Amino acid sequence: MDEPEGEPVDDEYLSLAEVEAIARRAHRGQVDKNGHPYSEHIAAVARGAAARGGSEAQIAAGWLHDTVEDDRLSREWLAVAALPEETKAIVDALTRRPDEPVEDYTARILATPGALLVKRADLAHNSDPARLASLDRATAERLAAKYARMRELLGLTGEL
Q1: What is the chain written as a DSSP string?
Q2: More exposed terminus of the chain, fewer Cβ within 10 Å: N or C?
């Protein structure tokens, strides 16, 4: 049976394994604030999205959530990538713009279907007490306050 025009079949999209490979390649050589390979963070966010019952589109967004924000992949790449529109929208929602007020950023996340689940996974990994404990005290306190404010704006108070 022919597929209706304009509705891609699943094999027209990148597989999760392909998305993972692209994300790992994009972040190659990048380290987090702890000096660990950045791929550990994106893997944790993808796993966290899956553990929260996320769809394949959300898991893919977990892998890609920082690629545009960190200038590892361009907005133009994202626009033409063989990804579901849901994944593209989530990645875009999670890409904080330069000098963007946090209130505008969180409003966009809340307005984008599927984005909050991925942001929850991101915040959970970023707020992991073990990760924060390996930072100097001032940085750990600054980040803990930043993540608490983000959770508050997203209606996630009480969540780590």
Answers
A1: -PPPTT---GGGSPPHHHHHHHHHHHTTT-B-TTSSBHHHHHHHHHHHHHHTT--HHHHHHHHHTTTTTTTSS-HHHHHHSSS-HHHHHHHHHT-PPTT--HHHHHHHHHHSTTHHHHHHHHHHHHT-HHHHHTS-HHHHHHHHHHHHHHHHHTT-TT--
A2: N
